[in-house]
Fold Transcription factor 7.
Amino acid sequence: MYKETVYSAFNLLMHYPPASGAGQHPQPQPPLHKASQPAHGVPQLSPLYEHFSSPHPTPAPVDISQKQVPRPLQTPDLSGFYSLTSGSMGQLPHTVSWFTHPSLMLGSGVPGHPAAIPHPTIVPASGKELQPYDRNLKTQAESKAEKEAKKPTIKKPLNAFMLYMKEMRAKVIAECTLKESAAINQILGRRWHALSREEQAKYYELARKERQLHMQLYPGWSARDNYGKKKRRSREKHQESTTDPGSPKKCRARFGLNQQTDWCGPCR
DNA sequence: GTACCTTTGAAGCAG
DNA sequence: CTGCTTCAAAGGTAC
């Protein structure tokens, strides 16, 4: 069933091929620089802004100066970031995510500001609304465990591909009339590989700024904090068989191919 | 009700 | 240092 959906997704992909590659696997590209170590040629914020405002059937470019958001805690590096996100990114509601963090903008006291809206990366561990604790029914140990479990979870910052997915998902859904995320993500994965280095660099740069902002907001936070919070089934289920090629990523890993550029035969 | 699927990248961890 | 694992998002599916 699942594979059928995936196959249908690929069929659709043939009708909506990426900019280059035309339904085939992407052309090999030179490896990209590490996001944490920007190389020459990384677009500045201005081109980034152009990217998010140009390729889509969106209204005329927004006058950023009229949409500036108070940013009392900004650093020099993040200033342009806020200009970008409060302006053009505002046209992409699904991408704003935590760019407009209330605490950074000192929402309380700012008229009309959604100060009461918690940070999207902070969610109750249960995913549900927090309930008052009933002291009469729980032991201290239970109380401690419960409190721990209900501590708001700070999510990981999104990486470049995740940011790309957030922006492009709606477009793919509209084009392919698909809703199943697994199939959509396969398409997005191929389109990601079909992007030029310059186009990908925009998202790497955005992701780098996301991590930077995340570090400023949560200095002591570690990705390890969220380890084990997702209940997972036995690990055997995740190990692919020798006959199943698995995902391109797994396949590349198994055959020792370049993660950035190479496509293994079974996954084409 | 919730894990799984599916993708890439970042980060953590074990050897 | 290398390689493996986990988790970020998303929403339909399966249990």
In short: The first strand of chain A starts at residue 122 and ends at 123. The longest helix of chain A spans residues 197-217. The two ends of chain A are 20 Å apart (CA to CA).
